[in-house]
Design a protein that fits this description.
This protein has about 260 residues and is mostly helical. It contains eight helices and no strands.
């Protein structure tokens, strides 16, 4: 018998149940200093999934889909605080730590399509991936570094198979305008494609020469084996950066000169 007039009653109750179940899933392991199992991780994911699906329905019905970003950002902050607590108190539970990191990364990435139009999704994910690589150096987390590389793979996919065809393909609109409108579209494309290219170049620099670790860095016993800095990954990042720049410049010069002509 729920209706939108009872939104805050339902939402606050849902938040309370979510926090309660999330905490009870791991509090015993933290107190007893025992490692979590797959059961706790599945429970965390299910609890987060049920809460997100339910809150998506409640919030979008009353405030619209864009407002759901408040929920995803809140979930991101919730799990980031757990990671911070684990790092500060040196809690040795690699499985649980990686579970919190995964959920924080997922909900942060989910926020971007909710807030932004499709043209800016790739650029935003590219910035997120670069920040994750930098953060991985600070906390010495191979898990975050691998997650950043996985996000870069999605960025490259969207760059080559979604963004380039939509802006330079046969179906792309030809700018039939002069002055501000024409050059505005040109600058927009420079930003949309320049950010992923710059991010990939930044990834090469971070992989080749890592930054200094922070005092809250993970213990090596709680880390994954380092494989993301292998020579082929470093070489691949610079090859991708150059290849993306070449494709973009090739198509942009043809488009810009063609439109101008």
């Amino acid at each position: 018998a729920y209706d939108s007039s009872h939104f805050w009653e339902a939402m606050l109750f849902l938040i309370g149940v979510f926090v309660l179940y999330s905490t009870t899933l791991f509090i015993f392991n933290v107190v007893q200093r025992t490692h979590s199992t797959l059961l706790e991780l599945i429970g965390l994911a299910l609890n987060a999934g049920v809460f997100f699906a339910s809150s998506y329905f409640l919030v979008s019905e009353v405030y619209g889909q864009t407002a759901v970003a408040v929920v995803t950002l809140g979930l991101t902050a919730f799990y980031v605080m757990h990671v911070y607590y684990f790092l500060v108190h040196r809690i040795a539970d690699r499985e649980l730590m990686h579970g919190f990191m995964s959920l924080a990364i997922f909900f942060l990435g989910a926020t971007i399509p909710i807030l932004l139009s499709w043209q800016w999704i790739t650029a935003s994910w590219a910035v997120q991936a670069l920040v994750m690589l930098w953060l991985a150096d600070k906390v010495q987390s191979e898990f975050i570094r691998r997650a950043a590389l996985a996000l870069y793979a999605i960025v490259v996919y969207r760059f080559g198979l979604v963004d380039l065809p939509s802006h330079y393909g046969a179906a792309a609109a030809i700018v039939d305008a002069s002055g501000v409108a024409y050059w505005g579209r040109f600058i927009e494309r420079l930003v949309i494609f320049g950010i992923p290219i710059g991010s990939m170049a930044g990834a090469y620099l971070l992989l080749q020469k890592p930054g200094a670790a922070s005092p809250m860095a993970l213990d090596q016993a709680e880390n994954l084996p380092e494989r993301s800095r292998s020579p082929w990954v470093v070489r691949g990042s610079v090859i991708l950066a150059v290849g993306m720049a070449f494709l973009f410049l090739h198509l942009e010069i043809a488009r810009t000169l063609g439109d101008l002509f």
